[in-house]
Amino acid sequence: MSFRIISKFVLNQGNGRCITACHRNPFGTFLSSPSATPSNATARARGRQKSYFQLRFFGGLSDDIENLVCKPLQSPAGVLDESESNFIPQNALYEGQGCAKKRVLVLCTGGTLTMAPDLKQKGALAPVEGAISKYMSQMVELKEDNPEMPDYVLHEYSPFLDSADLGPADWVTIAKDIESNYFKFDGFVVLTGTDTMAYIATALSFMLENLNKPVIFTGSQIPLCMPQNDARRNLIMAMIFASRDSINEVCIFFHDRLLRANRTTKVNTHKLLAFDSPNMDPLATIGISIDENEHVLLPPAKGPLRVHLRMDTRLLTIRLVPGFDDSMIRRLIESNMEEQQLRALVLQLYGTGNLPSVKESFIKLLADATEQGIMVIASTQCFTGSVLLGHYATGRALLEAGAVSAGDMTLEAIACKCAYLFGRRGFTNQQNEELMGISLRGELTPPELLVPPTGASGSFEQCIAKARKRS
């Protein structure tokens, strides 16, 4: 496996000379060409003060670098383009300048998509490093003469990890690599396993503030090596969406739809439609054509990219069942009085945020937890819908105990938003509670836009008025 690398670095030397300099390619080796002074290039370069760098990557083997030994990249990827120029103009500033095709960086952590028969495991399917590089180099859609597809650079993290093993430290690695290469590419594709893809993608949506480029997560239910698979289309469509100017956020593409990452959850382990966005329409769907839902797309950010790398995951999620014994929760909260380790307690409640009204001691226990500085978050066990703490008496009791409504956020969004807010460290507990009810990255529907339930109580209306006042 190798890449064709067209590397041209033109500098104004003050005397009009045009120099094609050597450039380090992504494999850690160097390609170089002698200096040249063609008359047409000299005329264009004379008087120009801005450096220009053109970098294009194609799948397939190039004759002029046939003997190039490709060294695998080590994790993390780091800067995959070490030129002195930090920006590649999308449009030509003058004749002969500019790159005709978009550029996409593909970051691969492993997952089902990368699986192939592993000889070390007697032919059983397992993630195989280098397999995705081989398959992509053979895909007709990714050949250099296809104007519909972007150029790409592929980086495989080493070693491959199961998505269940990817934690905050790995999220930071991906975020750093996107930051390092932010001005080198038009978009990013992240290939990972499906089990925790919604968590990883949601975390990245909070970590990448003021994102103005698409970051598309995808994977597959069937490996790319299998004759009948969903990996090929998922990969191709992810690269297409990563090169579209209308997308300015972290998304997940799977099967036939593009979903906002922090609105997405995995809903099926066997069907190809593995992900869904229960409380928001897809950003786009594909059929004969690509249909974007422009009314739900996030607008371009107004500031520079800011990457937040601290993620404090000291939280616990408890799903209540009828007849539950709250003694274990009591011991947990009481033990936290000395250690002060737990930052948030997420309760998955019934319906719109209800729990047994007869458990007054449990309500008192939650009030004690909030006094200790533990954020108590009320979420719903329902797949669709929202928490409305002011609608029923039991929900109102939670509100009075200091619980915070999760609105219509997914569990993935709740967990990752808490980790992001706690990692910021500059916010007080009260500020964190208020920010949980405010949409930061499009992760929840603002309370004032929720449809009031039938027979909404005055307390519900008061909650809406309070939320409007905060925003």
Automatic annotation (TrEMBL):
<dbReference type="InterPro" id="IPR006034">
    <property type="entry name" value="Asparaginase/glutaminase-like"/>
</dbReference>
<feature type="binding site">
    <location>
        <position position="163"/>
    </location>
    <ligand>
        <name>substrate</name>
    </ligand>
</feature>
<dbReference type="InterPro" id="IPR036152">
    <property type="entry name" value="Asp/glu_Ase-like_sf"/>
</dbReference>
<dbReference type="InterPro" id="IPR041725">
    <property type="entry name" value="L-asparaginase_I"/>
</dbReference>
<feature type="domain" description="L-asparaginase N-terminal">
    <location>
        <begin position="103"/>
        <end position="291"/>
    </location>
</feature>
<protein>
    <recommendedName>
        <fullName>asparaginase</fullName>
        <ecNumber>3.5.1.1</ecNumber>
    </recommendedName>
</protein>
<dbReference type="Pfam" id="PF17763">
    <property type="entry name" value="Asparaginase_C"/>
</dbReference>
<feature type="binding site">
    <location>
        <begin position="194"/>
        <end position="195"/>
    </location>
    <ligand>
        <name>substrate</name>
    </ligand>
</feature>
<dbReference type="GO" id="GO:0009066">
    <property type="term" value="P:aspartate family amino acid metabolic process"/>
</dbReference>
<dbReference type="GO" id="GO:0004067">
    <property type="term" value="F:asparaginase activity"/>
</dbReference>
<dbReference type="InterPro" id="IPR027473">
    <property type="entry name" value="L-asparaginase_C"/>
</dbReference>
<comment type="similarity">
    <text>Belongs to the asparaginase 1 family.</text>
</comment>
<dbReference type="Pfam" id="PF00710">
    <property type="entry name" value="Asparaginase"/>
</dbReference>
<feature type="domain" description="Asparaginase/glutaminase C-terminal">
    <location>
        <begin position="317"/>
        <end position="434"/>
    </location>
</feature>
<feature type="active site" description="O-isoaspartyl threonine intermediate">
    <location>
        <position position="112"/>
    </location>
</feature>
<keyword id="KW-0378">Hydrolase</keyword>
<dbReference type="InterPro" id="IPR027474">
    <property type="entry name" value="L-asparaginase_N"/>
</dbReference>
<dbReference type="InterPro" id="IPR040919">
    <property type="entry name" value="Asparaginase_C"/>
</dbReference>
<dbReference type="InterPro" id="IPR037152">
    <property type="entry name" value="L-asparaginase_N_sf"/>
</dbReference>
